[in-house]
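pls read this protein.

:::
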Amino acid sequence: MKFTIYTANCTGNTSNNDYPNRVDINSPESLQKAVKKDHACAVYKNNRRNNDKYISSGVLVMDIDNDKINNPDAFITEEKMDELFPDISYCLVPSHHYMKNKGNYS
């Protein structure tokens, strides 16, 4: 596991767009420590996250919400990821909203 993410100097600030801290991920522990802060998986001009300032990314980011699904058997889970992508290495990082109630959905 080797990739780079960029962290903010804050957590949970929805108006933040500043990600100045480059973090080279090389272990589960380094990833776990880095994602305690808000983070971005791309480089942006002047470290400011914005579509117009995007430079590059060394990772593919997928957001798995499983929202609007009332059948837990249809959820994308870690086990399902292993089935769908058997030869691809990946890391799962839950969001701040992981396992929180999504209205009337499971």
